[in-house]
Design a protein that fits this description.
Elements: H1 15-27, H2 46-55
Length: 56
């Protein structure tokens, strides 16, 4: 597939990194944008759901 959104090698930050970064930015009044892209079929990768479960 030649779509730019179809990444063959998905790399995700750890839940620990996400929480540490969020806390750092929150203390400074900033926001954290979590950029996740759906697959060509519109679904999110399972890893995204796992990370969200870990940080909630």
């Amino acid at each position: 597939m030649n779509d730019y959104s179809d990444l063959r090698e998905e790399k995700y930050k750890s839940a620990e990194w996400m929480l540490d970064t969020y806390k750092y930015l929150r203390d400074r009044g900033a926001n954290l944008l979590i950029n996740v892209s759906p697959r060509p079929n519109g679904e999110l990768p399972e890893t995204v759901y796992q990370r969200f479960q870990e940080i909630t």
